[in-house]
Design goal:
The structure holds two protein chains of two kinds. Chain A has 25 helices and two strands. By secondary structure, chain A is an all-alpha fold. A two-stranded antiparallel ribbon of chain A has the order 1-2. In chain A, β1 and β2 form a beta hairpin. The termini of chain A are far apart. Chain B is mainly alpha-helical. Chain B is 69% helix and 4% strand. In chain B, a hairpin with a 4-residue loop joins β1 and β2. The chains are: A mainly alpha, B mainly alpha. The interface between A and B is large, with 32 and 42 residues.
């Protein structure tokens, strides 16, 4: 069974091609083909999962050889899949959440003339993402990595008739390219260090490499992860990526693709284990991003952009955990899974709200939606409780473990990292509650033409399923450390470490901060009237609202010098390079004109050419050969 | 007098026989089905069924082949995996070519003249067109050409090789002359092709006669054996060998035997050009491979002069002349001359690698050629009264094609990049394999020149890409170009494009098969 895991990738890929090639005639049923492809991938994944459960822990990693890909002398590459508990976790998350979102999209995109194309891209995304997590070498992973980037680009710019949306797509693409340089350089370093880029060889040889080599590779992998997972300093694209249709934001920019960076770090654990310096940088990047995202989330009035900021912040938590080394890997993935459920659920809820409110995203125009949209309110509320980290909801089990793990260690690290994680929990509680109260509670601030109504069943059922997951998944997976044991073959067994503060104190402090955050939000936004226009606010608020002026920083630090550089290069290219090429081409062309005279169109001269050529060669050979 | 019926093993010949029998049957169909429309459909069906059946039989033969292969008809023909690989390739080109033959424009115009015997521009021609006559003989002619080429790859006797050469050449001469548009150019090209072809056939035949005179044998292996014994007259033998090779270099289109290429490529109906560019080169390369590896290898050192000179001259002249062309078809013709040079590079040292590298190279080149010429058939001029006219072959007319039809321009770019040997296309893998074979054979100076020529050649390929995508449609010329969308041509373009990409990304499967085919059977003592 495990040997047919290639079907996981093949089915959605074929479906994507069929949908793209079939053209308009498949418009009537194309979306169901897309749903079917995603669902069958889930079924295959589920069967493989059940089979894997039947195996003892150490036998659960299976390599599936597909074909020899680039046979060569030095870099011999086979295309193969690696099915182990880590990739299986992702397979289930991607196909399950993916299928729900496919179903949701059937209704959400109902009135879009290009719904079939949308499903083709979604299928393409699922295929590429599965390739990313199932690949058994960095190079094949890179193929999937680029594939999801392409799908993300196509989907962010899906409504590219709006110029700003197309720009947002470009921005995401460029930020990702910067990250990709990291992955390419990392592969180059691996090849020069280990002579291979497949997981097995690289990870086996990693302990023998020097710390400096591993640190360099690790930092380059981190750069790649930052681009894909919108981590500081490459985070600016995620907010703009919300230009895509909301199901896309839920699937790609919340549940799966943006977490690929975390996957990359955890997958490369053997490299990071030998590079403590790189690990600290990973954890710091995570800590900075989690605070930064939370602050941005506090100031945004755009529902989807606030959720995007929250995604950024939550992935910061995962990065932080991944940077802690073996004690954090399992919790990073655990939080990734629960986050995949509750954040996707909330995005779908946001989509449902937008569906009801004529695509309005300004939260200052919402309020009191709980009456009009009960299902959305309840499901979104469960997601909200989960992200707050209140027991017994999912986020509590995953996030609390990260906070605990962050407090483990010596010297300044536990205090800085743990402190950031703790403060982040309070900030999260505040901005998520602000978002929740502004949308569903308080007084209605709707414009006259808005008549909110509950969404159709096709949309609410996926929301309900995800909400159930947000509520109970954490409890189920955490009881008896089930999830940690499941991942143990990949992340390794870890001895228990005591945090610098007692665990009950940490849990207590977290809960106090969270409740304080919720209470503050209720006082400011739940109980009181909310102004229709955002107040000018303090300097801090303006800074956060503008994404910490990241765009301006990018412009000053990268874009302007870059433009100067390109202008200079264009000038040099036009005068020096093109000049040389054109002169040379002119030279060749002159030669061509001269030889052209030989081709004068007369058969007799053609025949003469042949004869003369033959005679000359024959003479040389016969006479010269003696 | 005692006449002994020869024992012939028919089964190994089945792929060739199916095609040739179908060709003969197709001629009868010409006589019996009178409605042009029905006849066209029946002919197309017969041709495709025959080619696909032959392809299937070739696959069965491949699987059944015991050991290296079978010698048939007393050493006249040898069927081994190498031959079957080439035959299958030619059959694939044949299928794609036949589909192009059958394609029509939106207005129902074919690529072939309604009546070949009429003078261009005459009243008879107009009458024939009005009456809806159709020249469906192109299908049997195409089948004969395919059959002859298949035979050509498998023959192991100089005299029989000449027969096969003529079997596939004569139909091609006729096909070149049958263009629907620009008929004078077409007839001129055909006549030149015929005259020079006859000239080169004569050279070949004379060479074979000299070799017979020197060794008293016409069979490949017997000639080689006689040479090894050393009892042969040296000058006679070398001159004969040079002339034999020259005759084949004509078919490959290598300098100085290339002069027919631009005129024939330009004048021929584009579907014929597509088929001819791909299949003739493949068949001639296959025959040259077999001769060089099984018959003339004792003269390797002497003949290497000819190969090196022809390779360098082809690469240089083909590339340089392609730079100054303003006609798409002529540009592709000179590019094919340059490719003939690249093919000859792989012959350096007669290494075993070439036996799998060259089939792959020709497959990649053939697919891109058929695809590129198929695209050419779709870009047409619009006449003054708004109807769709002849193909737009001036380079300037291709400006901004990317805006008119992104798919077509994208496919064309893919084929051009494959010609140029850019990675992730089949052309790259082909060049890589061919040059590796040459380096293994000590031909690194040739490879050096080939790489430089490839770099210069990239200039004119990329120039067309730039023209299609980065140049705007000239002001006021928006309506001058009409883009056709014949479903048959689209099919061919899709198939060749997908194959070009697949062979570029995942070449391992095809290369593995061809490595199995890198065996030539030599029969001794005949």
């Amino acid at each position: 069974m495990l040997s047919v895991t290639w079907l996981l990738i093949a089915v959605p890929l074929v479906s994507a091609f069929v949908l793209l090639l079939a053209g308009r005639r498949a418009d009537a049923y194309g979306h169901w083909v897309g749903v079917g492809a995603s669902a069958s991938a889930f079924v295959v994944g589920l069967i493989a999962f059940v089979q894997m459960l039947g195996l003892p822990g150490e036998e659960r990693a299976t390599s599936v050889h597909l074909s020899s890909w680039i046979p060569g002398t030095e870099l011999n590459l086979d295309a193969g899949l690696l099915v182990d508990p880590l990739s299986m976790t992702f397979v289930l998350l991607i196909t399950f959440v993916g299928t729900l979102i496919h179903i949701y999209s059937v209704a959400y995109m109902e009135h879009d003339p290009d719904r079939r194309r949308f499903f083709a891209y979604l299928n393409m995304f699922v295929a590429a993402m599965l390739l990313l997590v199932l690949a058994d070498s960095f190079l094949l992973l890179f193929v999937g990595w680029e594939g999801v980037g392409l799908a993300s680009y196509l989907l962010i710019g899906f409504w590219n008739q709006r110029n700003e949306y197309a720009t947002a797509a470009n921005k995401a693409f460029i930020a990702n390219r910067i990250g990709d340089i990291g992955l390419i350089v990392a592969m180059g370093l691996m090849f020069s260090t280990f002579g291979a880029v497949d997981f097995a060889t690289v990870f086996d040889a990693a302990p023998q490499a020097t710390a400096a080599q591993l640190t360099a590779i690790g930092l380059m992998l981190l750069l790649a992860a930052c681009g894909k997972s919108a981590q500081f300093p490459l985070q600016s694209w995620l907010g703009d990526a919300m230009a895509g249709p909301t199901p896309v934001s839920a699937l790609i920019h919340a549940a799966t693709m943006v977490t690929a960076g975390v996957y990359l770090i955890v997958r490369s654990a053997p490299i990071f284990n030998g590079a403590p310096d790189a690990q600290v940088v990973v954890a710091l990047v995570g800590a900075v991003t989690l605070i930064l995202g939370a602050l941005i989330g506090m100031a945004k009035d755009d529902l989807k952009k606030a959720l995007a900021a929250s995604t950024m912040s939550q992935i910061g938590y995962m990065m932080l955990a991944a940077g802690l080394g073996p004690i954090g890997y399992a919790f990073a993935i655990f939080h990734l899974v629960t986050h995949g459920f509750f954040k996707a659920g909330m995005f779908l809820g946001a989509g449902s709200v937008m569906h009801a409110m004529n695509d309005q995203v300004n939260m200052r125009r919402f309020g009191a939606l709980r009456g009009a949209m009960v299902v959305t309110w309840v499901t979104f509320g469960l997601g909200w409780l989960a992200i707050l980290g209140l027991p017994p909801f999912s986020g509590f089990y995953s996030k609390d473990k990260i906070i605990e793990a962050a407090f483990v260690g010596e010297g300044w690290q536990p205090w800085v990292l743990g402190g950031a994680a703790l403060v982040g929990a309070g900030l999260t509680a505040f901005y998520m509650s602000r978002l929740f109260f502004m949308t569903f509670h308080g007084k209605a601030r709707w414009t006259d033409d808005q008549h909110p109504h509950e969404s159709p069943l096709l949309m609410t059922v996926p929301m309900i399923i995800l909400a159930v997951g947000s509520a109970f998944l954490g409890l189920i997976l955490a009881s008896g450390d089930r999830f940690t044991h499941w991942l143990e073959p990949v992340t390794g067994h870890v001895e228990h470490h005591e945090p610098v503060l007692p665990v009950p104190v940490l849990i207590g402090a977290t809960l106090v901060l969270v409740i304080a955050g919720v209470a503050l939000a209720w006082l400011k936004y739940g109980g009181r009237d909310v102004a229709l226009e955002a107040p000018t606010g303090s300097l801090a608020a303006i800074t956060a609202r503008n994404d910490f002026f990241q765009d301006s920083v990018n412009r000053a630090a990268l874009q302007r010098p870059g433009q100067h550089l390109t202008r200079t290069l264009v000038y040099l290219d036009a005068t020096v390079v093109d000049g040389a090429v054109n002169k040379q081409a002119r030279g060749w062309a002159g030669l061509g004109e001269a030889s052209r005279r030989l081709q004068n169109g007369q058969v007799r001269s053609y025949a003469a050419t042949m004869l003369v050529g033959l005679v000359i060669v024959a003479l040389i050979i016969v006479v010269g050969g003696r | 007098m005692n006449f002994v019926t020869p024992e012939i093993a028919w089964a190994p010949l089945a792929p060739i026989l199916i095609v040739l029998v179908a060709a003969s049957a197709a001629i009868l169909i010409e006589a019996f089905i009178r409605t042009p429309a029905t006849r066209r459909l029946v002919q197309l069906a017969v041709a495709l069924v025959a080619l696909v059946a032959a392809l299937g039989t070739a696959a069965v033969q491949w699987a059944l082949l015991d050991g290296a292969g079978t010698v048939v008809m007393d050493g006249m023909i040898t069927v081994d995996r190498q031959a079957l690989a080439w035959q299958s390739m030619i059959l694939v080109f044949g299928v794609l070519g036949m589909i192009l033959f059958a394609a029509r424009t939106r207005a129902g115009e074919e690529s072939f003249t309604p009546l070949g015997s009429t003078a261009p521009g005459s009243i008879e021609e107009t009458l024939a067109r009005r009456k809806g006559l159709q020249l469906t003989e192109v299908f049997p002619l195409g089948l004969f050409a395919v059959g002859g080429m298949m035979l050509f790859t498998s023959v192991t006797d100089y005299i029989f090789l000449f027969v096969a050469l003529e079997v596939f050449s004569l139909p091609l001469y006729i096909l070149v002359a049958l263009s629907r548009r620009r008929r004078l150019l077409s007839q001129e090209g055909a006549l030149k092709y015929f005259l020079l072809g006859a000239f080169s056939s004569a050279i070949f035949l004379f060479g074979a006669a000299l070799v017979y005179g020197a060794t008293a044998h016409t069979s490949y292996s017997a000639v080689a054996y006689a040479m090894e014994l050393g009892g042969a007259n040296d000058a006679l033998l070398v001159t004969g060998a040079v002339m034999i090779v020259a005759g084949l270099l004509f078919k490959i289109g290598a300098v100085p035997f290339h002069s027919w290429t631009p005129d024939a490529y330009q004048g021929a109906p584009t579907p014929v050009t597509a088929f001819m560019a791909a299949a003739t080169k493949a068949a001639a390369t296959a025959a040259l491979l077999r001769i060089m590896y099984t018959s003339l290898h004792p003269l390797e050192w002497e003949l290497s002069w000819l190969f090196w000179a022809a390779a360098i001259a082809s690469m240089a002249l083909g590339t340089v002349l392609a730079l100054v062309q303003t006609d798409v078809k002529r540009m592709l013709a000179y590019s094919s001359v340059a490719h003939a040079g690249f093919i000859l590079v792989a012959f350096a040292g007669l290494e075993g690698e070439a036996l799998s590298a060259l089939p792959f190279y020709l497959l990649a080149y053939g697919l891109a050629s058929i695809g590129a010429f198929a695209v050419v058939t779709q870009v047409r001029e619009r006449t003054e009264d708004g109807s769709v006219g002849a193909e737009a072959v001036r380079l300037g007319q291709w400006a901004g094609l990317g805006k008119r039809s992104p798919l077509l321009a994208g496919a064309m770019s893919l084929f051009l990049l494959s010609f140029a040997g850019i990675p992730l296309t089949a052309g790259f893998v082909g060049k890589f394999e061919a040059f590796s074979a040459a380096i293994a054979g000590g031909g690194w100076p040739l490879v050096l020149i080939a790489v430089v020529a490839s770099a210069v050649a990239a200039f004119f390929y990329v120039r067309l890409v730039v023209l299609m995508f980065l140049t705007d449609v000239p002001e006021g010329a928006e309506d001058d170009i009409a883009v056709e969308d014949s479903p048959l041509v689209r099919l061919v373009i899709w198939v060749t494009a997908v194959a070009t990409v697949l062979l570029g990304i995942l070449p391992a499967g095809a290369l593995g098969l061809l490595e199995d085919a890198a065996v030539l059977l030599v029969s001794l003592g005949a």
